[in-house]
Amino acid sequence: MKIKNFTAISLLSGLMLFCVSSSANDEFQQWMQQQSQGVTAQKKEFQEYKDKRDKEFTDFLKAQWKAVDIVKGEVRDEAPKPDVMPIAPPVAETVVETEKPVVVSVPKPVVIKKPVPVPLAAVPKGRPISINFFGKQVQFYYDASLKHRLSSPINKNAVSDYWSALSRAEYEELLKQLRAQKILLQLNDWAFASLVNKLAVAINNNRRNESALLSWFLMAKSGYRARIAYDRTSIYLLVPSQHEMFEVSYFTFSGIRYYAVEFDGNKHKLGQVFTYDGEYPDTTKDFNMQVTSVVASNDKDERRHLSFEFESKKYNIDVAYDRGRVKFFSTYPQLNLDLYFSSGVYKVTATPLQKQLAVHMQGMSEQQAVNFLLRFVQTSLQYETDEAQFGEENYLFPEETLFYPYSDCEDRAILFAWLVKSLLNLQVVGLDYPGHVAAAVHFNEAVAGDSVSYKGKRYIVTDPTYINANAGMTMPDFKKYKPTVINY
Prior knowledge:
Blueprint: H1 2-61, E1 65-69, E2 127-133, E3 136-142, H2 156-167, H3 172-184, H4 189-203, H5 208-221, E4 227-230, E5 235-240, E6 250-253, E7 256-260, E8 272-276, E9 301-310, E10 313-322, H6 323-330, H7 337-341, H8 347-361, H9 366-380, E11 382-383, H10 386-390, H11 398-403, E12 406-407, H12 409-424, E13 427-433, E14 436-442, E15 451-454, E16 457-462, E17 484-486
Parallel strand pairs: 11-12
Antiparallel strand pairs: 1-8, 2-3, 4-5, 5-7, 6-7, 9-10, 13-14, 13-17, 14-16, 15-16
């Protein structure tokens, strides 16, 4: 009797558990369905918002254009530079004896952990396309609808229709790929825009106007305050920058300059164009032109041999440079000098050069070590004005100075300042004279000679263009000027 009752109870319990389990499963499935419906509803709502935003912007583009006169880019310093470097007369050494020599240290290469890009689908949808990004092959997949022909003639309706067509394409996946590459390749804003432009050019088979329009679309969708302008024959990409660009045409809206940029190193010569006063919604980014020590490197170094004499002894130095970065720098617009003084130098160039120079400076005083670096820059590199070498003013980053056959005053001052700061850990400023640039060093020991006062400290003039000049010697033609201090 007890066994029968136990069996009945067990069956009843099992039935109840099944019912509870079945009910819980039904509730779980119902919850999952609600969640799925919620996500679908959110996606639908967001898509409707995007569609509404693009429709409003398309309508805006059909109406809000006006003619503006592009302003020719400003020139930094029109004073002529010396055609020939003067040679300093021999002077007796006035090195102050110190109890301990200068500490020469080679900075350890900055170990930058490779960032993890935004996860992408195993094989993104769309057509495959590969571009050469300053020596690196980068693969993308894109929707064929992004390859769209611009109707003619060029006018506000053609531009508006172009935006409308691109906004209906499947572009989100391509934006994800671009964001991933920006992180993976550690691109600054100019490098990212260059990547977008190279992709747009490849998609459009080098058609210039369509490439500018696609670049504009992708940059705006990436959050940059990009605009365009057009004249009878051409479309121009316009971007605002946190840093002034020289000799780049621009127009101003609401106190903000929008520069007509090119990514091949060329400059637009514009007259009157048509553009609009407005922003695509949610675009907030202006270009930050600061150069890091990694951007656009392709990890393929090339070498050059340099030699010089110091205190009757000959020194041989092998320098390396990354061709990808040199090519990238050639596309850079000209900027204020402080950005060149503060730029990072890639490890392929920095570390071998620092190690070789550091070995030779061991046991020297601060003044000897600075003079040693002066002599290296003064005499191992050939001097030529930018006008003679490039046909125009062209400030160089340190790696460019070591690559090109010639360099002039500001290029040498920038390279020298980086060497002193990185190897000797001394404070350095730039000195900007009319038509000439030098540097000045704040020593820890007493050093005689010409100097400037800056923020309560004495900086000794050091001129990497004045051949055989030691610390404290100003080029004779510039003694009458009070230079502007370049702090960075």
